[in-house]
Write a structure and sequence with these properties.
Layout lengths: L4 E6 L20 E2 L3 E2 L2 H9 L4 E6 L4 H10 L9 E6 L13 H8 L10 E6 L2 E3 L3 H10 L4 E8 L1 H4 L3 E5 L5 E6 L15 H5 L4 E11 H9 L6 H9 L5 E5 L4 E3 L3 H10 L26 E2 L3 E7 L4 E2 L3 E7 L4 E2 L4 E3 L2 E2 L8 H10 L5 E2 L4 E3 L1 E3 L4 E2 L4 E3 L7 E2 L3 E4 L2 E4 L4 E2 L4 E2 L1
Parallel strand pairs: 1-4, 1-6, 4-5, 8-12, 14-16, 15-17, 16-18, 17-19, 17-20, 19-22, 20-23, 21-24, 22-25, 23-28, 24-29, 25-30
Antiparallel strand pairs: 2-3, 6-11, 7-13, 8-11, 9-10, 9-11, 26-27, 27-28
Organism: Chryseobacterium pennipullorum
InterPro entries: ADP-Glc_PPase, ADP_Glu_pyroP_CS, NTP_transferase_dom, Nucleotide-diphossugar_trans, Trimer_LpxA-like_sf
Family: Belongs to the bacterial/plant glucose-1-phosphate adenylyltransferase family.
């Protein structure tokens, strides 16, 4: 079947709900699972689906994302594949930045003219899932779709936070509501599997994954359909174009908030996590050529470690430990995500800091960290206690912030010895 496809990964906006992780980086550049970036997920899904023509649209805080993509994805000279960056730009025809998801793709269409493609796959850069896009493409082609939207069944409680689609028995979308009120849900149930019905998952939520037939998307843009796929393009396409729902049955989560980001990472520590890092479909990322992690005298349970760590902690439990993390003796890490570091301190600097009583990069001696996210390159002194929970009011506190009871220590923060948070 003809799968002449170009994939577009949307780099996202300011990502305010993931602050402070997005203070210096875009959402797709946020580190996840100890060694990856969020953008690695959609790119890996494309590559594992045999789709190797990929463009990433960037706008806000794009430097680290651009660097990661440039250093991670290389194709040999005999391949027609690529992962390229399209940065937002002002020109004589348009002096404004992207006004929405659809506008980002619209402004980029002129750059796609040099490529041969029949279908456009549009993806978000801040979601966690494993999906074979070939199956969705086959569904789109076999059913003569103009626009196919990947959907996932959800319960009524979650439905109010998504764009909810109603489809008929043939998969045609008949109506769409963006984040409907709870009292609007009665007439929005769709046909789902018996297992989903048993779990009350009878509402189809848009996953933000779209396939457009090339000519149709161009026609929509020529008609001025709007700036956003969820608010404008999808509602206007229903009844006018063949708009289909492709039901996905696997694990999928939107990394939209600190809480969802925290939960998605800690889920990886379970015996059988919902997102399987150990499947035959690898997640690709930058090859850093780091040494293996070294663990000395620590009790470890349900933990995921990146590469190049030096661990002398007393206890690490239900936590994700990122690349190059250093944790000194006597410390305990529980229910936390420590992102690690971008570089190693040299031994001379470590000795000088110890003599001067300054914290070294990593986590010092006899610390206790619970329900926290430590961004990269943090300097945590000795005898520091960070204990998240609902007892701490949400807010920004300088070197750290709190959201939903989760303490987020900012990138590069210095936390002096003896500090107590929470």
């Amino acid at each position: 079947m003809n799968r002449n496809v170009i994939s577009i990964v949307l780099g996202g906006g300011r990502g305010t709900r993931l602050f402070p992780l997005t203070y210096t980086r875009s959402k797709p550049a946020v580190p996840i699972a100890g060694k990856y970036r969020l953008v690695d997920i959609p790119i890996s899904n494309c590559l594992n689906s045999g789709l190797n023509k990929i463009l990433v649209l960037t706008q806000f805080n794009s430097a680290s994302l651009n660097s990661h993509i440039k250093n991670s994805y290389h194709f040999d000279i005999f391949s027609k594949g690529f992962v390229d960056i399209l940065a937002a730009e002002q020109n004589v025809e348009n002096d404004s930045w992207y006004q929405g998801t659809a506008d980002a793709v619209r402004q980029s269409m002129k750059h796609l003219e040099k490529y041969d493609y029949d279908y456009i796959l549009i993806l978000s850069g801040d979601q966690l899932y494993q999906m074979d896009f070939r199956e969705m493409l086959d569904f789109h082609i076999e059913n003569g779709g103009d626009l196919t939207i990947a959907t996932i069944p959800v319960v009524a409680k979650d439905a109010t936070g998504f764009g909810i689609l109603k489809s008929d028995d043939d998969g045609n979308i008949t109506s769409f509501y963006e984040k409907p009120d709870y009292d609007m849900l009665d007439g929005l149930k769709s046909e789902v599997s018996e297992e989903n019905k048993r779990h009350g998952k009878e509402y189809l939520a848009s996953m933000g994954i779209y396939i457009f037939t090339r000519s149709i998307l161009k026609k929509m843009f020529d008609e001025g359909a709007g700036d956003d796929f969820g608010k404008d393009i999808i509602p206007s396409s229903i009844g006018k174009y063949k708009t289909l729902s492709y039901q996905y049955e696997g694990y999928w989560t939107d990394i939209g908030t600190i809480e969802s980001f925290y939960e998605a990472n800690l889920d990886l520590c379970l015996d059988l996590p919902q997102f399987n890092l150990f499947s035959s479909s690898p997640i690709y990322t930058r090859a850093r050529m780091l040494p293996p992690s070294k663990i000395n005298g620590s009790y470890v349970s349900k933990a995921v470690f990146g590469d190049g760590c030096i661990i002398m902690a007393d206890k690490i439990e239900n936590s994700v430990i990122g690349n190059r993390t250093r944790i000194d003796k006597g410390s305990t890490i529980v229910n936390s995500y420590v992102m690690g570091a971008d570089f190693y301190q040299n031994t001379t600097e470590i000795v000088l800091n110890d003599r001067a009583g300054r914290p070294n990069m990593g986590i010092g001696k006899y610390c206790y960290i619970e329900k926290a996210i430590l961004d990269k390159n943090c300097y945590i002194g000795d005898n520091v206690k960070i204990i998240g929970g609902k007892h701490i009011p949400d807010g920004d506190y300088g070197t750290y912030s709190v959201q939903d009871g989760i303490v987020v220590v900012k990138k590069g923060a210095i936390v002096a010895s003896g500090t107590h948070i929470g």
